[in-house]
Amino acid sequence: IAxxxxxxxxxxxFSRDEKVLAVVDVELAGERANEVDRFDLxxxxxxxxxxxxxxxxxxxxxxxxxx
Length: 67
Known about the structure:
Blueprint: E1 7-16, E2 19-28, E3 31-42, E4 45-52, H1 55-63
Antiparallel strand pairs: 1-2, 2-3, 3-4
């Protein structure tokens, strides 16, 4: 994916107990979207990560098709 110019920049973080949400600005193949990463922590370490993003943007980048 790096060959398509992937850039991820954190915008804001939210946390409660051992859960953290990170709102991120993602740029891929000239498109931008705000997406969310969810981290579950255990004893201060990352135990699980879930990325909630624009799958259509990723599909367009990988296939080389326009919007």
